[in-house]
Amino acid sequence: MQGFVFRYFIPNEDGEPIEANRDAVFLEAEDAVLDRCVELFVHRRDLLRKISSFDPPLEIHLYQGSTFKDTKDQHYFYGRVTFDGDSRIMELAVEEILKTQNSFGEVMDIVAHEMIHVLDYLDDDNGILPGWSVAQVEEFMAARDLVRRSIMRGKSVIHRYALVSPEEFIAVLGEVYFTQPEALKDTNIILFELMDTYFHPPKKTAKR
Ligand SMILES: [Zn+2]
């Protein structure tokens, strides 16, 4: 796969990121990100092509170390997607990437989460997947409203962080879909099917 520009950062004494050379850990993280992208978009090569053909290309900044201090004075972050002019920058904590496979904590799948943000930003920045029909958007919004209360009470497989904004809802939902599809299917068939239809489109429509 081409089309992503990786850059590598470590913290200095003040917790500011300084650019570093790629070492074995960075390389492992980079491979994990690329492998995960292929898995996420295995049935949607079209989406992967879009994301990997930005001009300028999507920059993926890997942060190795736990003593970063970001500009908002948060002591540590897991990941985020930001814009700098036309550039899209995805920042990912190496530790989170490498523990993704085994952890089901607050951050379940940082690559899935941030890639959904990138997808979301393809259209308007509004927490809706690009290409959904009007009917699908309506169905999604109704289901999102309905599940709010159970998320708030901690009774849903969808983490509370989803309630921060529509953008975070779709990103967290994506994480749940990719890491705990069966649990999502059992608890919220509508949200599951919206995601499943999107990322696993029926074969007959994909065939020409
Ligand atoms: Zn997010």
The ligands bound in this entry are: zinc ion
- Give a count of the beta strands, DSSP E runs of length 2 or more: 5
Helical amount: 40-55%
Rg over CA atoms, rounded to whole Å, is 17 Å
Uncertain parts:
none
What is the H/E string?
Answer: EEHHEEEHHHHHHH
Largest sheet: 5 strands, mixed
Q: How far from one another are the termini?
A: 24 Å
Could you say which overall geometry the principal axes of the C-alpha atoms support? globular
Helix count? 9
Classify the beta-strand content into a percent band. Answer: 5-15%
Mean pLDDT, to the nearest integer, reads 88
Number of domains: 2
Class inferred from helices and paired strands: alpha/beta
The order of strands across the largest sheet is 2-1-3-5-4
Question: How would you describe what is shown here?
Answer:
This protein is an alpha/beta fold and 208 residues long. Helices cover 46% and strands 14% of the residues. It has two domains: 4-120; 134-206, no CATH class. α7 (181-187) crosses α8. The longest helix has 19 residues, at 134-152. Zinc ion binds at residues 113, 117, 168, 171. Zinc ion (ZN) binds at residues 113, 117, 168, 171.
